Amino acid sequence: MIKLGVLCSGRGSDLQSIIDAIKNKKLNAEIAVVLTDKPNVLALQRAENAGIKNICIDRKNFTGKNDFESAILKELKAAQVDLVILAGFMRILSANFVHEYENKIMNIHPALLPSFPGAHAHRDALNYGVKISGCTVHFVDEGTDSGPIIMQAAVEVKDDDTEESLENRVLEQEHIIYPKAIQLYVEGKLKIVGRKVLITD
Ligand code: GAR
Asked: Between vectors from CA 9 to CA 65 and to CA 23, what angle results, nearest 5°?
């Protein structure tokens, strides 16, 4: 069984969608550990409620990024994690970290990449005036939100949308496509060819 290590920073609704997909037998994997970079966040509680090992590696306790990432890597290795899942983890991982799990880190971003990378995707999409936005699951490379795209889902942007209403509409799709993309990985169906991820049968 493939072991997932899920990294979160906050609310953990994407984490919850993965927990639920495993429970409902839509995703054939095990969450070996949930790690957060902040204390007292809902993601830790969600993991605890599901009986999943959860650890806060508080970024504030580390002076440098290297030491912080080493602490995360130590826990991922200790839990024998095969695939790292970024689920609302609001930090950029270093090239060193990415190389430790080459092509074995997935992220979900709340926009149709390469549009609106970064930390304020919904605000940026609304300010730009796009009519369609959505979400993207991708492998993580050394850049920011730049790795090969596995799956995307689109949603309509309405004239009276606020950041919150758009976020909620996009989250519904995130909770559908993230578990699906992970299951494709579990089934060995994802093949990276340059920038493309082919979904094989
Ligand atoms: C999600 O919308 C996710 O796509 C986004 O943070 C939210 C986390 O929600 N991730 C990023 O913006 C990464 N750059 P959650 O904590 O409820 O899962």
From this structure: 130
